[in-house]
Amino acid sequence: xxxxxxxxxxxxxxxxxxxxxxxxxxxxxxxxxxxxxxxxxxxxxxxxxxxxxxxxxxxxxxxxxxxxxxxxxxxxxxxxxxxxxxxxxxxxxxxxxxxxxxxxxxxxxxxxxxxxxxxxxxxxxxxxxxxxxxxxxxxxxxxxxxxxxxxxxxxxxxxxxxxxxxxxxxxxxxxxxxxxxxxxxxxxxxxxxxxxxxxxxxxxxxxxxxxxxxxxxxxxxxxxxxxxxxxxxxxxxxxxxxxxxxxxxxxxxxxxxxxxxxxxxxxxxxxxxxxxxxxxxxxxxxxxxx
Length: 290
Known about the structure:
- 39% of the residues lie in helices and 16% in strands.
- It is α/β, with parallel strands linked by helices.
- The chain has a single domain (64-288), classed as Rossmann fold.
- The protein has a seven-stranded mixed sheet with strand order 3-2-1-4-5-7-6.
């Protein structure tokens, strides 16, 4: 499989979860091309290929395509902040076509562990074969629904790291709540797993996106589904306490990426506590509380 593959007229737009990695990579490529780019990813366009562009063009979200680059930017900031605070290892769950170990200023001795499906990581490895990462990179071929497999991985990582930052960009939205609960508890078990940065949405945003993207995920074996009414508080009984919550809309307004009408909406205060019908998406940093 090549990152440059195209969308045949007879096949679904999103064939499998790996196609979402191409989609997000194309948004990183577009951000990179901007003169005022919030980050630059020189590898994104190659990884996205024509298929990533095709998906992005047909999956333009309500109000424009500002949210994906802002999500990546907020993750970048949270990761660098955690490293400055002492994290010595990143455990990147469902890493997809993320290129942070190649594009970010990371210490050479830093350990970055990517976990994802075998075929996707093999494709990524081939595409980046000639590139040199900034730090030590390990790729683990694992389906995260394999509970015993992931628990064994977490135990191994814990044994070799002092302070682990968990990164799960674009993962939880595709999981049922029961699987999120199970994963969160497994991540709270290893003593060196200190911080977790993730993205999440409100039920209102889930409803909006489900309507806008109706049928797009039908053949992929996945769908958007995790949007807890508790908001970030969902994770508190599971061993994770919110340390920072950044709404994408306000972050996009500060970066001057919003159309006029959404700039007005961004003036509203951030929702707190339980989430409802108001569309909200954000990036959250949690600290271990157990």
